[in-house]
Amino acid sequence: MSDPNTAVPTGHEQVAIDGATPSERLAGPARWVVVIGTLLSLVLVINQLFNIQLFGVVLIEGRYLYILGGLFLALSFLIFQMRGGKGGVPSLLDWALFAIALSCTAYLSQTAQQNLSQGWEYAPPEVAQYVSVVFFFLVLEATRRAGGMILFCIVAFFAFYPTFAGHVPDPFSGFQSTFMQTVPYHIYSAESSFGIPMKAFGGVVIGFILFGAVLQRTGGGQFFNDLALGLVGGYRGGAAKVSIFASGFMGSMSGSVISNVLTTGAVSIPAMRKTGFSAKTAAATEACASTGGVLMPPIMGATAFIMASFLSRPYVEIALAAAIPSVLFYWGLFTGIDAYSAKRDLRGLPKPDLPRLKEVMREGWPYIFVFALLLYMMIGLRQESSAPFYSTALLLVVNQFRARFRLNLQRLGNMIVGVGMGLAELTAILLGVGLIVGSFSATGLAGTLVNELVFMAGDSTLVLLLMGALTAFIFGMGMTVTACYIFLAVVLAPALEAGSLNQLAVHLFILYWGMVSYITPPVALGAFAASTMAGSNPIATGFEAMRLGGVIYIAPFFFVLNPALVGQAPAWEIAVALGCALIGVAMISSALQGYISLIGPLTGSTGLPLRVMLFFGGLLIAMPQNALVDLSYGLSFAIGAALCALPILVARRANATLSPA
User: How far apart are CA 178 and CA 126, in angstroms?
Assistant: First the structure.
């Protein structure tokens, strides 16, 4: 357990930049192979996206994706051990799988033009069939190593589904194919492993993963921690509020809840413990803040770019639509933490432990400048594919003029290995999840399930949404964020859209509910990771995270029922909806904590009923005008305000009684 009396690290000792993390300790030749493979892949991507035509080479999309995906697939066998875990010394079997994957990649890339012109997904020659079978099983093994056994079982079941789809009872039956018809379709078609997820990866995602890794390795993580400490560290519950800001910044870039917890939690959790937070609350706060970071623009991890590909919309539209929902989540978390701190009279961090904001900005202004360039190119110039590469180049140039974070050979090598490991992991998962998409395409099951879900829900939009939320939560327990979203975008999103719901809001809805499992027992991976750092009980931490982050369960219903909360309405309507939602969310968070910020506590024999009134009052204030509640905004707000009035009055009197005369 962390000692609450230890000093809070506020300087640049917070995160080790020059040391390799345990996951990057590849030994011997494997390390050099990963470095060389990663650099070659990045050259390939830059050549393709910027149309440089090195050596006069112009690649068709299929050949480009085969080379890129196959190379990182091969590297995954050197990075991930047979029995789980990263790094170490690869075995002879790992090297053999690496060589076989490269051989298959060479064949697939060489024959890409023939595949395109001759329709190999339906009628491949004999050699192509055998190569597809080998590559198919390599993808499954890489998915098992990178994604874990649960994801592997799900992917394997659906990958083989077309071979027995005709024997499955309705509504899950579909067109059946033989094994030797199914496997070539998975590998050679543009609807399966090398479909939309890999196209998004090769077009946009890879650049942002590179940018996030370089930013973290050049001191960006420490800058955001110091910035958050300087801004809010001294206020009531300041250490927890630092966690909210710092984890939000870093999570947006990393796209990984677990890595975000381990990175920012090393600083925020000891700081929270020092200022009086219990171990489980400190861990729960970090878990919630890290989970929300993946939902926050401008980067939102890899998932938002895949969403843009699914919807055939510019990424900027996705980021802008996600802005208000992420504000609601973090506002709910912030007000909940403030109420928790006020209820327990928790103070901020001592001033000597806080970095000076002026010094932080003087040293970290290059990060602000780099972000400004990134946002300008993404939003102003609409150059989503090239923006992260220009920003990364600027970051590396600026970094070399700063002695504290200057990259030497060791740091540079660790950074390249870290980038390669992240890209190999994501590639293995995307290729595997692509098999699920391909099976739904091959069997026609997606359309069948859509019709059945709509039929089961009848005319009830609420029932359809509840079914969708439950489905997203269940699959989110066994998959990564990206894998869960891809699966649900194929299976669930069309059914919700058929219920006359806004398309963009629907996709954000399933993304949010796919994330819920990170703070919800029995899985709660984010909460469990944070609990190991805080020394708290994992299950208790999970339930505490549910209470602190309760808005994540409710906010998706707000914006999916009211498109104004994802920017799909006139400006005045967006402003009204946002104002009501912010007030309502604050009331809901206060009800969950039993304390209304700036007013007083809800305690005693009447505390629970008053909290229930406050909760439902907040719901009505934030509730959008829709078919579920036949009330106008004004009437809904008035009823909600009336329900909130009594708890607020009682809390004020209780606070006056507790205050010294």
Answer: 15
